[in-house]
């Protein structure tokens, strides 16, 4: 009997040990299971982060830009039906263009078909237009110059692509606009057959911005901060505008924005333009510069979204691996509504309406809204 108690104690102790071991084993199993779930969860979070980080930014840009486009006129197609321009139709591979770029071309073509705007949207493909288009034969690219919309940087891109300089940083500033040294041929320098061949087969693009803001930029650049190598703006063009369009003849100050607006809005401005010659390209309409209703462009970029549009254009032209668009200073491309309203403050509604009438084609072709100060 004395041996029974120790045997029972041993059995009880063994049972507790076994129970503890089982409990400890289950504890480890739960810890291992929890660890596995944690690893899976972290992997899912990391995957989502990587997806968002490397997602094409053009998709978001397209969605935002589309909100600011004017409504596309009804062309008789059923709701939801999308008409793609000829050069953007699927060719057996996935169409990767963000919606906004196709939408811009569609809007432009619809406005080109409006008979009421024909005089404001159509122009002949004259030597003046061909002089504005620069050629890169090596990569089959045509670029139409629209002054005061960041064209200097695009010229630098083409200069590098044409092989005149190895990099954008090595191009001297005084060479960019010197067409005898920069290696940029104009389309007008080719024969008629060669011109037509390039217009039909090359990648073609140009850049636009809000028409009124572009005019303000031109006025500031040429009459306020006029560079020394362009003295004719202050000494020849400004006096000519003042003599013809200044209402207060006792006013002796230099040219004012009001004088400039009155000159541009005059339906008979062309007689004075002829005296100014090619200098006036800085405030000629996009229609007169690039003939968007006569030439089938591949892409129309907007200055306001250039951060997205520049990489897109390089990619679509197939040159993004060869050259990059120069860094854009923060905020320089954003539309400045306050600045525009400030410049037009105090100018008569009549003069502003006449100015808008001249540039209405530019506003409508490229989806820019009519200024609010003209709607009151």
UniProtKB/TrEMBL annotation:
Listed InterPro entries: Carb_sulfotrans_8-10, Sulfotransferase
Native organism: Ovis aries
Keyword list, A-Z: Carbohydrate metabolism, Glycoprotein, Golgi apparatus, Membrane, Signal-anchor, Transferase, Transmembrane, Transmembrane helix
Protein known as: Carbohydrate sulfotransferase
Protein location: Golgi apparatus membrane
Native organism taxonomy: Eukaryota, Metazoa, Chordata, Craniata, Vertebrata
Topology of the protein relative to the lipid bilayer: Single-pass type II membrane protein
Family named by the database record: Belongs to the sulfotransferase 2 family.
EC number assigned by the record: 2.8.2.-
GO BP terms in the entry: carbohydrate biosynthetic process; proteoglycan biosynthetic process
GO cellular component, as recorded: Golgi membrane
Top-level taxon: Eukaryota
């Amino acid at each position: 009997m004395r041996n029974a108690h120790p045997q029972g104690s041993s059995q009880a102790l063994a049972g507790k040990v076994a129970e503890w071991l089982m409990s400890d084993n289950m504890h480890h199993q739960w810890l291992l299971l929890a660890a596995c779930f944690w690893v899976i969860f972290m992997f899912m979070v990391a995957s989502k982060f990587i997806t968002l980080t490397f997602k094409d930014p053009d998709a978001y840009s397209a969605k935002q830009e589309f909100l600011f486009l004017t409504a596309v006129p009804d062309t008789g197609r059923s709701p939801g039906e999308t008409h793609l321009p000829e050069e953007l139709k699927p060719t057996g591979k996935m169409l990767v263009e963000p919606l906004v770029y196709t939408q811009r071309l569609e809007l432009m073509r619809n406005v080109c078909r409006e008979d009421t705007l024909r005089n404001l949207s159509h122009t002949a493909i004259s030597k003046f237009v061909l002089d504005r288009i620069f050629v890169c034969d090596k990569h089959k690219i045509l670029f139409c110059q629209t002054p005061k919309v960041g064209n200097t940087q695009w010229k630098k891109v083409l200069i590098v692509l044409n092989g005149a300089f190895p990099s954008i940083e090595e191009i001297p500033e005084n060479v960019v606009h010197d067409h005898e040294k920069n290696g940029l041929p104009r389309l007008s320098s080719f024969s008629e057959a060669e011109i037509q061949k390039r217009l039909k087969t090359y990648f073609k693009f140009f850049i636009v911005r809000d028409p009124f803001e572009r005019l303000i930029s031109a006025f500031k650049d040429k009459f306020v901060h006029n560079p020394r190598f362009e003295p004719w703006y202050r000494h020849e063009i400004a006096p000519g505008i003042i003599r013809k369009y200044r209402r207060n003849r006792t006013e002796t100050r230099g040219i004012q924005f009001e004088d400039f607006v009155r000159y541009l809005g005059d339906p008979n401005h062309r007689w004075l333009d002829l005296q100014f010659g090619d200098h006036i390209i800085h405030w000629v309409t996009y229609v007169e510069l690039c003939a968007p209703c006569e030439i089938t462009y591949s892409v129309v970029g907007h200055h306001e979204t250039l951060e997205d549009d520049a990489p897109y254009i390089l990619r679509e032209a197939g040159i993004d691996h060869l050259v990059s668009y120069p860094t854009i200073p923060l905020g320089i491309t954003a539309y400045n509504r306050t600045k525009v309203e400030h410049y037009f403050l105090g100018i008569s509604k009549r003069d502003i309406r006449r100015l808008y009438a001249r540039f209405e084609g530019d506003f409508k072709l490229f989806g820019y809204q009519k200024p609010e100060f003209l709607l009151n």
